[in-house]
Amino acid sequence: MIDQIKIGKFIAAKRKEKSLTQAEVAERLGITDRAVSKWERGLALPDASIMLNLCNILGISITELLTGEATMEEDYKDKAEKLILEIRKKEEENNRYLLRLETVIGVLSTVSALTIIFTAAFLTPGTVLMTFLVLIALLILFVGIYFALNIERDAGYYECRSCHHRYVPDFSHVVMAMHIGRSRLMKCPSCGKRTWQKKVLSR
Q1: How many CB atoms lie within 10 A of CB 134?
Q2: How far apart are CA 73 and CA 4, in angstroms?
């Protein structure tokens, strides 16, 4: 398990070893010292985009940062492998949650839109209220589908059945592609073949 409290204490200790203040670390990373304070208190983890720069500033490895302890050379490979597995597990759990959320959003928006349209059907055709309700229903459906598709695109990866390359496609490709469940007929950016590409939870 990734222990945020342990990692925070490790970051603080390494920062102090380098005789750096939170503000100085933050300035070098282009962030606020409040973010550094949150890391050191175990309230958050550094963003993946700045982890490498943070490690360079503190003079540690990525493995040491994510385990919250200095690593001996002989232990490095074993800890790195365990860390990779832990990160992959967390990624899969997060993507599984997002895909469940996508389903909930899709169902709720569809049911809400149909309920409003059903209600509008009992009104006199052509009235302002009926037109308004139908427009509201269509708006709810459109917004629901838009957010659901965005979540499906961002959660996990699509795997090419030909070369097994895993990637995140452009939103337009997801929208325009024929699909069966969460498998979509798309062109692979690696091999260029058009195949039914299935959704997978991690690389």
Answers
A1: 16
A2: 23
